[in-house]
Amino acid sequence: MYILYNILILIVLVIFIVPYYTYRLFTEKGFALRFKQSLGCVDEEDIAKVAGKDCVWIHGASVGEIVATSPLVKQIRKEMPERPVLVSAFTVGGYNMAKQIIPEADAIIYFPLDLPFVAESLVKRIHPGVFMPVETELWPNFLRAIRERHIPVMMVNGRISEKSVKNYKYLYGIWDDMLNTVTRFCMQSSIDADYIAHLGADRSKIFVTGNTKFDQTYAEVTPEDLAKYRFELGLKEDYPIIVAGSTHPGEEKVLFESFKCIRKKYPHARLIIAPRKTARADEIAKLASHYGYETGFRSKMLEKSGERKEYPLLIIDTIGELGRIYAVGDVVDAKVVKLMTFGAFAEILPGVDGLIHISQIADRRISKPEDVLTINEEVNAKIIDIDLENKKVSLSIRALLENNADEDAAEEAEAPAEEADSEE
């Protein structure tokens, strides 16, 4: 099965990945480093602090997973200050976010492509003490290289969708190998725990530890920070501000249609959009012009001094700021479109006072803008605190590391005895 998987990976690499990466290499600033490190070409100085030092290697694919990684790294630093930490990301956005919000990491790199020779080479060079994939970042060849070196694996912030349950079944023996490689599954919810068990994971290895995204602190905003953001974005306090984060193609059109209706009742309302990919900023501004909205760009407004112009639409085309900019909003949606049509659930970003946590109002629907503000007042101080769960996770990591060290010591002790027996 691995042979078939690797043949398919090589075909995809040659036909799709290499041309796509080559195109991005010449058109996207900063992509050269990803191209290089994705092929396993990581410079020695980039991993000098973690290679061969039993580091904790945490991997998150993109921005969302890196946000979930941040509180884990902080807790590991607190519980095990002597243990070096390596963070890897798969996307440019994830890598840049890690650089901004995880200063505690000893090294940050791009995760290698799942080619057998690439994965094998990098795992051999770094040889972590434990590998921690965030959510469902499981790669067959990489995990095979990890398993061959008896390195413990702990899935953190584990999440399995219903679609994934169906797709993973097609991996047959490879999926079983990956599951058997994982020493501990720390899942976001009981539903995720049931899914992973249904897929074949040992229930004795499964634990529900919650979603670590709700424990991040990089988005905490002081009154001074809030005033600074309002000034830099040219915002006042006498009109409603709507923030839509992580938008995808097609969603902005729905936003603008809804915003047009909102402006009929609130003519001075402001809309802030933070696209999932900042490269789409000009595309969104062009679409906005069809609706008659003049656009301000966060990056350009930062370059100015003094009073900023008040734009009806602001686009956040910078990395790592969205979590804090949510604080300026009166209506906030991290999932976007349906809230703007006032038929969906509100969402919170933890650390930002006054926003709403989806798990706290899961049965509350919003029918009009005022409903959001009313609910805001009711749950203003209800921010989920999972410090205890993070501590449990970090203690689990320590236990895995110590257990692995004991096993290595036992194997070393057995080796001379076996040699003596063979001589006799």
Spell out the key features of this protein.
424 residues, alpha/beta, five-stranded parallel β-sheet, four-stranded parallel β-sheet
Concise description?
The chain contains 18 helices and 12 strands. It has helices spanning 2-27, 31-38, 44-47, 63-79, 92-101, 116-126, 140-148, 162-168, 173-181, 190-198, 223-232, 251-265, 281-290, 298-303, 322-325, 337-340, 369-378, 387-423, and strands at residues 56-60, 85-89, 107-110, 130-133, 153-158, 182-187, 206-208, 241-247, 270-275, 295-297, 313-315, 331-333. It has a 5-stranded parallel sheet with strand order 10-11-9-8-12. A 4-stranded parallel sheet has the order 3-2-1-4. The protein has a 3-stranded parallel sheet with strand order 5-6-7, sandwiched between helices.
Q: Specify the biggest β-sheet.
A: 5 strands, parallel
Figure out the total of helices: 18
Structural class: alpha/beta
Name the helicity range. 40-55%
Principal-axes geometry comes out as elongated
Identify low-pLDDT runs: 334-388
In total, how many beta strands?
12
